[in-house]
Amino acid sequence: MALQGISVVELSGLAPGPFCAMVLADFGARVVRVDRPGSRYDVSRLGRGKRSLVLDLKQPRGAAVLRRLCKRSDVLLEPFRRGVMEKLQLGPEILQRENPRLIYARLSGFGQSGSFSWLAGHDINYLALSGVLSKIGRSGENPYAPLNLLADFAGGGVMCALGIIMALFDRTRTGKGQVIDANMVEGTAYLSSFLWKTQKSSLWEAPRGQNMLDGGAPFYMTYRTADGEFMAVGAIEPQFYELLIKGLGELILLKIQQEAESCQARQTPVSVKQWPSLQPKSWGFVWQ
């Protein structure tokens, strides 16, 4: 296992922090989760491969135990807002003075600087501030969050795990730890680099829900089936689009052929203006 021999102290939290620590544990790290007094079970359900203990960090004895743990650990992962750890006398200045090799990973919603760093939030708030939420949803409807996967787990947990791995690698050259400031707003914005880099291309030139990859194209969307379930269609390339049309049967084939005959030298299987009329739901077809 790639992280065998690496010891991690995780201060318990919700979603992104536990997921980040679970990723490290899955690849061999020895993870100890520090729970708060009164915790009856692992609320996150992401405790795979971890050990746990209860400490009251607001009490001198509890804080002293954590400091001893961090003296012999490689990574500390904390999920709190700006200033919380410093108030407990457990900030990076203190812990890294006692263990210069310690990687101090801070995973928060808004980061450790700026006016928002003092505020609480949830996945949908971080997603909105990153700009990504404005791009997700059907045409003419409100934007909606894709569960809490994008900001919490991808922009938060995964990006923080990546930062920890890079810091561990850098330590092999420098011998020193570092502070990682991972936050879900910037992490989600970074994940969406492709979206912003291609914003002025044909991929996203139409309003939300009317582009090729966001539900506007009939060959890249979901459809309800006759048994009440759903199926996903992704036939972007012409050769796959042709197979899709052949498999749909004569009725829909005739309809699409009529609509597509006027399309000249296309970049996509059919012209963008024709997409709405080619969606089966718009003319009463139910996929069998």
From TrEMBL:
Gene3D superfamilies: Crotonobetainyl-coa:carnitine coa-transferase, domain 1 (3.40.50.10540), formyl-coa transferase, domain 3 (3.30.1540.10)
GO molecular-function terms, A-Z: catalytic activity
Pfam name, any one: CoA_transf_3
Domain of life: Eukaryota
PANTHER family: ALPHA-METHYLACYL-COA RACEMASE, SUCCINYL-COA--D-CITRAMALATE COA-TRANSFERASE
Family membership: Belongs to the CoA-transferase III family.
Protein name: Alpha-methylacyl-CoA racemase
Annotated source species: Pan troglodytes (Chimpanzee)
Annotated gene: AMACR
